[in-house]
Fold:
Amino acid sequence: MARKKKAAKKAVRKPVKKKKAARPKRSKPESLRLRSAQAGYTVNDLEKSVAFYRDILGFTVGEQWKDEGKLMGAEMVAGAVKLWLGQDDWKKGRDRLKGEGVRMYFETIQSVDEIADRIKASGGQLLHDPQTQPWGTRDFGITDPDGYRITIQNLKKR
Structure:
């Protein structure tokens, strides 16, 4: 009986180990390598912006900064993404534009169609409904209260 077990063991094939592809050498001086990015937005009405990111988009509120009891800044968190919202101090004038020419792209593994439906049900207005782009991602757009544009898209398969 012991011989049968040994024979059975010999018949089992071990998985073939794949050779790792050689990594290209890094140039010198080495280029910048970052692990994450976060954006900070100056906003006209901080409480309105916090409500938009929390109640419409679904972020959670992290740290908050107050000055003499008045909310001056808030960290907004969604998964690994953080946005820092800061109340404008108006030192550069009350008429300066915000959000002009700025767009953030957020990737998710969640269904962008379901997220868009939830946003619309919460009172949000999309720039465009979910659509599949020629390069394969599915996305939709929205604008925050200060004009910062946001695209939420499916995580690209790499």
